């Protein structure tokens, strides 16, 4: 081939390349756009998720209260006149509230109407009155304005969930009830307040009385058991595997096991808990103890893997220096390597705990889904945890539970953000480059 | 003395033993540490271990055997007409006794049960007292004997380190015990289940209705345990999830690894990973309350028949959940492709996207496939989203707008609530658990094998 032919040929190649260049660059731009779009799609999903849950949930942090002028009639509260705390605690405060409502709306006489009237306040309102009297026994015989929680429908109406303009037959609240609420409002007897009870009360069938207090304590005890068990065991296992274990088939087998357990579906751990801990070892069902045991097994792989990489990050020179001044292998590890790896291990532990806090599937298997009103006071009491409470409320048909569920999710997410934020902070603060 | 006080007393004894051992070691060395084999603290630990460990082992064993032994004694103290009952009724009696002991309201007014409850209480306090006496004496004897053995030549450090090493090894064996526990617990119950329902019917039957009748003559009393609709439902939802997660996850990983400026990467990567940190129950709530009605409305506006609990809604949300798994694993593997391969492609005149499509992705493919397999195993085992959004109807269908049910959903529905431990209904859950465990195990092993092989390739 002579030089002229090569020249022609190369020019032709250049032409072909040039001709296709526009198309190729367009493909390049498209490809780049696809990537950007998928990141955008992922983030968009996150935003939609958070916004929809926040939008449904923030209103549960306030609660509508009704102010009633209750006259604390001694004949009802304490006919014997002894004023003993027992008598005060067991009096019929519901009757007082009903009387107060009746005085406000004297024209309501029909039995059915009265029942509707009584639904304006929460079924648990009498307990609030009782607590007020127990705190101030001198009120007996006087009359005072008491603020009690409004019924679920009034609360939802006040928060704007009901469409007032809909036809009466399709409305949950009829015209008559709307008129009552409007009158209460006009008289300044209706108020939205911060819903502190939501954080302290146990579960309830009535949305306006239900709170996450019990679930929070249950979660606390469960995560506590998990932390107390999984941190020492996980760190010890990591130390053995990383610092002492010989290279042989046994140790390989342990490692394969750990990696595999990290990927086993969480519900299988629930089956293990049911068969081994509850049916075989007789650990009390529904207790934070058995929940913590199951979650320990589940989070161990996470903690072991994190702790191993923290140990791996400590440079060998530290170990050599310790050995050089006469430390035993055990002293080297526990006096020098582990303290340096501690921040990394703690970060891993916090991440493991945040996973345990959000986990619910295995806990369904071991009975932590029961309807539990009492707040647990120890690791042997029946309890439920926050994510399971979310699951339970999500199943409830009452309209009022939707916002409670979302609010419980917001609290759960707040805890998770707090824990992960701490982990990130620890990592940034104590991370050392050798 | 209750068990928790006993525990605290034992802890205090150990602390005292530590101080005692330390002091004694200094005393036998006449105050000069260099006469001792080990540092004084090790002698303290040595005594404390002898003081605490045998007593704690005793405590644990006692706790395990106390319940059954007391039950047995109480039963044998019952009058004959109560003792002669069937095991189930005897269980109820025991339960009644426990309720009386716990001070709960019960319907049991039978004086025999009241007497048995008193007997139960007596035995329990006897057992507590006995345990306290035995445990404390074991603890003290252990401490004293160990204290006697302290001499300057005692190799206390080696002994303490030996005990510590034993603890470390035991902890690393927990992983093996967990696996063994999982396998045994699902295997035993499954074998019992396959004794009641033939394994072929379970694996190949197409009818799933596990409701057992209360009376034998009721309609449909047999219960049907053909799990094929569950398998297809699981696969359908997982396939939808992967159809969402793989393209989005992979493309974001490519963009983050190859195109993104450090700034976009620093923001985008953590934001995507937040998706993995959201609890699954939150996704389930979102799927059931927001996505499912949306899917139904869209389908109806297109003139399609859609169930309010569609496979599509559950699958879509599950896909969103899995995006970060796919993207972060793929990101790792794309970053592991050596720069020299890219440089080679650029030198031939390829554009960046051509390099990625024709060089980087094929080179990273095994790792990406491994990551996707791990994501599939996650989708199959995911529980809360499908429990809350996919429904319970065991339809054998490929239509994503219909309700389907999955293996995990059925495990939950079969095991939540009251259960007898011997009914096929409960055992079926364990058989499903076995299938789930084996399927995810196979996927994980294959994935880990591929990933490991690929990692070695460029190292």
Distance between the termini of chain B: 62 Å
| Residue runs with pLDDT of under 50 for 5 or more positions of chain B | none
Order of helices and strands of chain A: HEHHHHHEHHEHHHHHHHHHH
Choose one word for the global shape of chain B. flat
Membrane topology (chain A): Multi-pass membrane protein
Protein name (chain A): Phosphate transport system permease protein PstA
Keywords (chain A): Cell membrane, Membrane, Transmembrane, Transmembrane helix, Transport
Subcellular location (chain A): Cell inner membrane; Cell membrane
Descriptive key words:
heterodimer; A: 434 residues; mainly alpha; MetI-like fold; 3 domains; three-stranded antiparallel sheet; 66% helix; 5% strand; B: 459 residues; 2 domains; two-stranded antiparallel sheet; 16 helices
Question: Could you explain how this protein is built, in words?
Answer:
The complex is a heterodimer of chains A (434) and B (459). Chain A is mainly alpha-helical and 434 residues long. Chain A has three domains: 3-58; 61-201, no CATH class; 213-430, MetI-like (MetI-like fold). Helices cover 66% and strands 5% of the residues of chain A. Chain A has 18 helices and three strands. Chain A has a three-stranded antiparallel sheet with strand order 2-1-3. The longest helix of chain A is centred in the first third of the chain and has 55 residues, at 3-57. Chain B folds into two domains: 3-154, no CATH class; 224-457, MetI-like (MetI-like fold). Chain B has 16 helices and two strands. The model of chain B has no long low-confidence stretch (mean pLDDT 86). The chains are: A mainly alpha (434), B mainly alpha (459).
């Amino acid at each position: 081939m002579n030089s002229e032919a090569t020249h022609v040929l190369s020019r032709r190649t250049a032409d072909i390349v040039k001709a296709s260049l526009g198309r190729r660059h367009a493909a390049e731009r498209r490809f780049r756009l696809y990537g950007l779009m998928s990141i955008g799609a992922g983030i968009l999903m996150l935003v939609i998720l958070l916004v929809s849950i926040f939008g449904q949930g923030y209103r549960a942090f306030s609660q509508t209260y009704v102010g009633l002028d209750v006259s604390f009639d001694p004949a009802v509260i304490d006919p014997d006149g002894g004023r003993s705390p027992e008598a005060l605690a067991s009096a019929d405060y519901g009757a007082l509230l009903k009387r107060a409502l009746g005085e406000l709306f004297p024209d309501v006489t029909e039995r059915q109407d009265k029942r509707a009237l009584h639904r304006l306040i929460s079924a648990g309102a009498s307990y609030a009155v009782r607590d007020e009297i127990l705190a101030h026994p001198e009120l007996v015989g006087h009359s005072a304005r008491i603020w009690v929680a409004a019924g679920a429908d009034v609360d939802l109406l006040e928060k704007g969930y009901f469409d007032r303009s809909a036809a009466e037959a399709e409305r949950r609240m009829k015209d008559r009830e709307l008129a009552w609420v409007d009158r209460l409002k006009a008289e300044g007897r209706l108020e939205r307040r911060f819903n502190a009870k939501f954080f302290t009360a146990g579960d309830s069938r009535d949305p306006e009385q239900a709170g996450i207090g019990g679930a929070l304590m249950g979660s606390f005890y469960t995560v506590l058991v998990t932390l107390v068990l999984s941190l020492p065991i996980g760190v010890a296992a990591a130390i053995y595997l990383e610092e002492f274990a010989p290279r042989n088939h046994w140790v390989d087998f342990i490692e394969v096991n750990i990696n595999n357990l990290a990927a086993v579906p969480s519900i299988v751990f629930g089956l293990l808990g049911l068969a081994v801990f509850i049916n075989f070892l007789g650990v009390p069902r529904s207790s934070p103890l058995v929940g913590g045991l199951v979650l320990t097994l589940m989070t161990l792989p996470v903690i072991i893997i994190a702790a191993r990489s923290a140990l791996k990050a400590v440079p060998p020179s530290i170990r050599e220096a310790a050995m050089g001044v006469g430390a035993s292998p055990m002293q080297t590890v526990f006096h020098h390597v582990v303290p340096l790896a501690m921040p990394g291990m703690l970060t891993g532990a916090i991440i493991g705990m945040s996973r345990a806090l959000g986990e619910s599937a295995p806990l369904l298997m071991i009975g932590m889904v029961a309807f539990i009103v009492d707040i647990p006071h120890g690791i042997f009491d029946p309890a439920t945890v926050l994510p399971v409470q979310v699951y339970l409320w999500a199943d409830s048909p009452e309209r009022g539970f939707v916002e409670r569920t979302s609010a419980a999710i917001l609290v759960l997410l707040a805890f998770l953000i707090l824990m992960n934020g701490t982990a990130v902070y620890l990592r940034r603060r104590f991370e050392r480059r050798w | 003395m209750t068990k928790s006080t006993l525990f605290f007393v034992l802890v205090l004894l150990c602390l005292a033993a530590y101080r005692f051992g330390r002091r004694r070691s200094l005393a036998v060395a006449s105050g000069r540490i260099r006469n001792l084999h080990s540092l004084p603290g090790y002698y303290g630990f040595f005594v404390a271990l002898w003081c605490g460990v045998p007593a704690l082992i005793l405590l644990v064993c006692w706790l395990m055997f106390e319940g059954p032994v007391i039950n047995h004694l109480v039963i044998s103290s019952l009058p004959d007409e109560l003792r002669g009952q069937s095991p189930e009724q005897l269980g109820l009696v025991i339960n009644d006794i426990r309720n009386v002991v716990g001070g709960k309201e019960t319907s049991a007014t039978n004086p025999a049960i009241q007497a048995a409850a008193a007997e139960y209480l007596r035995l329990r306090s006897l057992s507590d007292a006995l345990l306290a006496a035995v445990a404390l004496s074991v603890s003290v004897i252990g401490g004293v004997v160990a204290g006697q053995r302290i001499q300057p030549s005692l190799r206390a450090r080696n002994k303490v380190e030996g005990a510590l090493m034993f603890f470390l090894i035991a902890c690393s064996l927990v992983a093996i015990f967990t696996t063994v526990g999982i396998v045994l617990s699902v295997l035993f119950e499954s074998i019992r289940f396959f004794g009641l329902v033939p394994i072929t019917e379970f694996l190949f039957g197409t009818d799933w209705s596990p409701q057992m009748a209360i009376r034998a003559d009721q309609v449909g009393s047999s219960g049907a345990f053909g799990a094929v609709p569950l398998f297809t439902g699981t696969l359908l939802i997982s396939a939808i999830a992967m159809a969402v997660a793989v393209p989005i996850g992979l493309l974001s990983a490519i963009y983050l690894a190859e195109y993104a400026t450090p700034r976009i990467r620093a923001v985008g990567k953590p934001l995507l990973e937040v998706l993995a940190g959201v609890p699954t129950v939150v996704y389930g709530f979102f799927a059931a309350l927001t996505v499912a009605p949306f899917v139904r409305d869209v389908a109806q506006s297109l003139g399609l028949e859609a169930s309010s609990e569609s496979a599509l809604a559950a699958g879509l949300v599950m896909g969103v959940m899995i995006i970060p798994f796919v993207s972060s694993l793929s990101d790792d593997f794309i970053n592991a492709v050596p720069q020299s391969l890219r440089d080679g492609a650029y030198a031939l005149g390829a554009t960046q996207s051509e390099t990625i499509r024709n060089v980087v992705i094929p080179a990273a493919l095994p790792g990406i496939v491994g990551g996707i397999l791990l994501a599939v195993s996650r989708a199959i085992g995911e529980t809360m989203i499908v429990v809350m959004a996919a429904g319970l109807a065991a339809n054998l269908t490929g239509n994503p707008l219909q309700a389907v049910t999955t293996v995990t959903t059925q495990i939950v529905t079969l095991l939540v609530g009251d259960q007898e431990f011997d009914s096929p209904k409960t055992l079926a859950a364990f058989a499903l658990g076995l299938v789930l465990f084996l399927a995810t195990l196979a996927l994980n092993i294959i994935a880990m094998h591929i990933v490991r092989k690929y990692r070695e390739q460029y190292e």
